[in-house]
Each structure stands twice: as C-alpha cells, then as structure tokens.
Fold:
Amino acid sequence: MIIDITKSGYQKGYLPKEGVGVFHPFFATANAAFRKEALLKTGGFDPKCSTGEDIDLSIRVAKAGYELWFEPSARVTHFHRYTLEGLLKQWFNYGYGHAYLFKKHMRKHRLQFYRYDLSPSNKNPFGIARVLDIPFPVYGMVFLNSYHLMHLSLLTALIAFLFSFLKLGVVALLTSIISATWYFWVRFDPKKPFKSILFSGIRYLADGAYVLGGLLGGIKEGVIYIEATRSRKRV
Amino acid sequence: MSDMKRLKTSVVIITKDRPEDLRTLLRSLVEQTLRPDEVLVVDNNSTKSYEPVFDEFGGLLPLRTVMEMTPGIPAARNRGIQEARGDIILFTDDDCEADPRWVENMAKPFHYNPHIGAVGGEIFSSERTGSLIEEFCVSETLMRMGRLEEESK
Structure:
C-alpha cells in the first residue's frame, strides 16, 4: 500500500527565510538538491552532526543568501523499515543529535520556551511558536506539550498529596488526566479505535526516548534541552 | 530559459549494507524522464557486497562508485560532494524510490533563478514489511504532514 501525502507543511515555491529560533525551513536529504556552488561556499555537511545535518545545511545555505525552493512535483517514496527497538533508538538519536544543532544555531544565554500553534496567524511552516524568551546563564530550550504537562502535573499531584496539600493535589491530578487524554485524543481515530490507541502507546514510548535523548545530548553540550514531538489532530 | 545553459545533475546516494534497497532506488533512476548526468554511490564502509548491484546497473546508468572509510552520514555525503561533477547535486537515501520525473522536476527550479541554492521535494511514506511499527511510522508522517489520502496501489 502506497500512502499518498497530498499536502506537506510547505507550499510550492520559495520557503520563508526566517524560522522561529532553530525551527527553520529545511529539506530532508531523502529528497533534496543543492547547487554545488552553494555546497562549496558553505562547506557542506557538518561532521559534528550525528543527526539533523540536513537541517543545519539548509539553515547555512539560506544564511549564505540563497533561496530554498519547494517543488512538490519532485517526489520520492521512503520505505520505512523499523522494529520497536530500532524506532526507539532512532528517536533517542534524534533527541541526542538535535541538542548540538540547537546549541549551534540558537542565541546564547537565553532560555526559550516553544509550543505548537496551528492557528493561521502563525507563519511558521511547522506550526511552532515561541512563548517565552528570557535571559539565562546557559542556553536552554524547552518545548511545551501535553507529554510534559501530564508528567509534571502528575509529579506535582504526588508531591502535593504526600504533603497533604489536597486542593493542589486534586487540581494537579485533573490537569494530568486532561493532558494525558489530550495526548491520546490527538491520535484517536474512531475508524480504528484499537490501533490508534496502540499507536498512541508507541508514540508515548518514542517520545520518552526522544526526550531522554535530548536531555542527555543537552548535558553533553552543556545546555538545557527539553524536546517534545509535535503532533496535530488530523484535519 | 532556452538560452540558459543546462545545468548538469549528479545524484549522490550514500549507502551502508543495503544492496537490495539500493537496487530498488537505482531501478527507479533508470526510468527517469531526464537522465541524470551522473549517479554517484558512496559506500560508507559496508561489509555486504555491492558488486552484483553495480554490475547490473553499470550499463544502465552513468554510475560511479566510491568508498568512504570515515563512518557517518556527513562524512559520506561530503565525500559525495567532493567527487560529484554536476552543477546540481541531488540527494536521496538508499531506502527510497524516485518518481520517474524526480530528476527533471528537481533540476527545473535551479534554471529559473540562479539564486536558488536548494530545492526540496515531497517525501511519500510507505511500509516495507507491513509490520505494526512501520504502519505506525507511516501514520505519524501523515499526521505531521497534514491532510492525507490513502490510496491502494
């Protein structure tokens, strides 16, 4: 079965030059072409990137003054071949490798918070919006989503109940339940209820690997790096 | 556009231990509406033999092969950039398959405007063995990409 993606995040034509922070328009090397002159001018791929070398190169090519053009009629099909173990490893590696990439391209001594915003006023092609940008001793990036919220509020609830702050505990527990429901609801498909809940479970494991990879990669780079995958409700 | 010099294309593929996947990709490159001027395969220190695949496609494609001993995707791709003779370098992965008009449609925008430094295309997602995890990966890609249509082929 070939599954047809009829609409990507990009529109045909020139990509916007600016992203939000490091969330910059890029082309995955599974389907990207570069003018050789642009590759020579920018020095090609950064050997320090363990993943995301394509994001890094797209940013540098755009910064060198070149235009990026998205051509939806140029198509390749990527064949996934994964086991659960391979999938978790891959997401761990994404998190681990992206920490370097974020450190390389973000402003130093800032702590930035991001969230997913799909309203039409948000021009970022990935639906990413910055919610807070404050001075900070080291570099930090935190992506806020329901995955983090359900865990943080659950932790808050446990601590609150432990110290008998019952009201706080109830509020925190409800917050946790609501965000967990939202996390699963985003993937819920009434046509395949069982499978879509199972997929949410796989996503949950993969998110865990991604966040853990990001945390460890961040520690290696000396930065705070809390990632989260972006998901949106089917439109 | 007719008075403009036609830019030469190099398809650069890096690969490691996936000769059978590469075969699928190379087959899709044989059937292009615009024949690439060069197909450069960078073998990133594989233990599996690519000889039968290279023999099969040597006469069908302008195929060149190099071995890059330094492990890692950036090192292998940079070797490809160094070795490639084209004006435009097209990248795809060894577990992908190109549409018959891929090279033509990727090369076209570079001719519109000399300031275009990079062109990206659409990446479709498919399963290989039909395992649950692969099905999950496809459905995730679809979610990220937006509206979708499923189509049996």
In short: Residues 123-153 of chain B form one domain. Chain B is about 35% helix and 30% strand. Chain B has a mean pLDDT of 89. The first strand of chain B starts at residue 9 and ends at 15.
